[in-house]
Amino acid sequence: MNTSSGKAAPSRRIALDPENVKKGLGQLVLTVVELIRHLLEKQALRRIEGGSLTEQEVERLGLTFLELNEQVKWLKREFGLTDEDLNLDLGPLGKLL
């Protein structure tokens, strides 16, 4: 498209790099997963401290959180992300990680 001065107008297209889109989406998803994981861990600790879980449930929770942690580590490596990339500032609550 040309302007009245005969020069081409700047392109209105967004230059998307598929790798950046992939990494950005990975960052968003992993940040949400980390937020949910932290909330679930806090809830699990409350229930453990409150005595409302059996020994088997406590063991299963521990194994589940260990496996989830390993999967998140693997995904961070796959997307080239660090803990700091996922560290949201939650305002008065502080940083996520």
Q: Which residues form runs of ≥5 with pLDDT under 50? A: none
**Terminal CA distance:** 48 Å
| Class from helix and strand fractions | mainly alpha
H/I helix tally: 2
How many beta-strand segments? 0
Q: What is the string of SSEs from the N terminus onward?
A: HH
In short:
The protein is mostly helical. It has helices at residues 18-50, 55-79.
Explain what you see:
With 97 residues, the protein is mainly alpha-helical. The chain is 60% helix and 0% strand. It has 2 helices and no strands. The chain has helices at 18-50, 55-79. Helix 1 runs antiparallel to helix 2 (55-79).
Search tags:
single chain; 97 residues; mainly alpha; 2 helices; 60% helix; 0% strand
What order do the helices and strands come in, and which of them pair?
Layout: H1 18-50, H2 55-79
